[in-house]
Specification:
Elements lengths: L27 E4 L5 H11 L3 E6 L12 E2 L2 E2 H6 L3 E5 L5 H12 L3 E4 L5 H4 L4 H7 L4 E6 L14 H7 L2 H4 L14 H22 L6 E6 L1 H6 L4 H8 L16 E5 L5 E5 L3 H10 L14 H6 L1 H13 L3 H11 L3 E3 L3 H6 L1 H5 L3 E4 L7 E4 L23 H9 L3 H9 L4
Helix pairs in contact: 1-8
Length: 415
């Protein structure tokens, strides 16, 4: 049973042995992206051992000040910039251009999300980068891609969520289209970008290929996971619309309120699960109807099924509902807020939320690695660092910049 009381004490740093070096150990990534999608791609590479250097304009990535803050430190920044060393660099300036080229010589991956043509205007297009380092993988993240009539438009994830059809299909039937309250398109593009980088690295390192350019838009990965709407329209002329928490493909599937004002979610995509649900709520007779084995037919009768399931759940407390559904093998999950999520026994045991060392805020909790590798696990070593914190180390190592020159560059606005 998911606990409903206060969260347990988080695990302490040092409780578990440190994992081995990640599978991407030795890979060097320059993260020149800003805000979310491109930095998330670089974060994922860093989670599994890549040496990620975050390259920011001296003004700083706007993500540093987005969302909630504590003591002047952005909390989302701490997550998406974990495991990254940070340098500041205005590479539009002549000396900044030189310093970036020094970094490119030793890099495996360069991640950026400037509008198409901007890097070329600064003399840093892919052709120039590949002259410097022919084996470089260049991940270019934009709103609409490097080509097409919208390519140079300013874009954020919200626009991809709108154009892709996501917002049109989200919300209550008869209500307005609904946008997500978080960076969904950015997150999907970030995961996709990390996958694309790994494919390009495999081609380079295992197949004898060289460097290449990855053209990744925010629009297309989100569009790709939204189901078969283009195919449905092409073949049937049907435009999928909004269904609230229901599914047009199966039933019962909805959010239901318990007698003590908690919420649960039920999905019965499999007929066998739907049979268990109807038996549990006292209507096994419905499961004997000739239409019942067909998910689409059940979806067409969602009012009937929701009435039965919703009434049964609405007469019982949360704990009773969860126990009964779990014992019956009927698929159910609580609808959590973040406090309830952190208190959940399964989330706690699997360490889905982990404790991260941070020099500014002390140990902080954040989402753990997206997946687990049995032989080469990843690791979160530290949270997002301060602006330009590693300038001395990185520019000293790659360009021979000493402290006197660094002070001069800082005064000139280069770093």
């Amino acid at each position: 049973m998911p606990p409903t009381d206060a969260p347990p004490d988080p695990p302490q740093l040092g409780d578990a042995p440190k994992p081995a070096q990640g599978p991407l150990s030795g890979l060097r990534v320059l993260d020149a992206g800003f805000v979310y999608a491109a930095p998330i791609a670089a974060m994922l590479l860093g989670d599994f051992g890549a040496d990620v250097i975050k390259v920011e304009h001296p003004r700083g990535d706007p993500a540093r000040t987005h969302g909630w803050q504590k003591d002047g430190h952005g909390l989302w920044w701490k997550v998406i910039s974990r495991n990254k060393k940070t340098v500041t660099l205005n590479f539009r300036s002549p000396r900044g251009h030189e310093l970036l080229c020094d970094l490119l010589k030793e890099a495996d991956v360069f991640v950026e999300n400037f509008r198409p043509g901007v890097l070329e205007e600064w003399g840093l297009g892919p052709e120039v980068m590949h002259e410097i380092n022919p084996n470089l993988i260049i991940l270019r993240v934009t709103g609409f891609g490097q080509t097409g009539p919208y390519s140079k438009r300013r874009a954020f994830g919200t626009l991809a969520e709108a154009m892709s059809g996501f917002a049109y299909q989200t919300g209550e039937e008869g209500g307005p289209p609904t946008l997500p309250p978080f960076g969904l398109a950015d997150g999907v593009a970030g995961v996709t970008g990390a996958l694309a980088v790994m494919m390009a690295l495999y081609h380079r390192d295992a197949c004898g290929g060289g460097g290449q350019i990855i053209d990744l838009s925010l629009l297309e990965p989100l569009l790709g996971i939204l189901g078969p709407a283009p195919t449905v329209y092409d073949q049937l002329g049907v435009i999928p619309g909004r269904h609230g928490n229901r599914s047009p493909n199966n039933a019962p599937r909805n959010a239901y309120q318990t007698a003590d004002d908690r919420w649960v979610a039920i999905s019965a995509s499999a007929t066998s699960v739907a049979v268990r649900v109807l038996a549990l709520v006292g209507r096994p007779d419905i499961a004997t109807e000739p239409w019942f084995p067909f998910a689409g037919e059940r979806a067409a009768r969602a009012d009937l099924l929701d009435e039965c399931v919703g009434k049964w759940i609405g007469e019982r407390d949360f704990d009773q509902v969860m126990e009964a559904f779990t014992d019956a093998g009927a698929a159910i999950a609580p609808i959590y807020d973040v406090e309830q999520l952190l208190a959940d026994a399964h989330v706690t045991e699997r360490e889905s939320i982990t404790l991260c060392p941070d020099e500014d805020l002390g140990p902080i909790r954040m989402q753990n690695l997206f997946f687990r590798l049995s032989k080469t696990p990843g690791e979160i070593k530290f949270g997002g660092r301060r602006l330009g914190q590693d300038n001395s180390e990185i520019f000293g190592q790659f360009s021979g910049v000493d402290e006197d020159e660094l002070a001069s560059l800082r005064a000139d606005g280069v770093v």
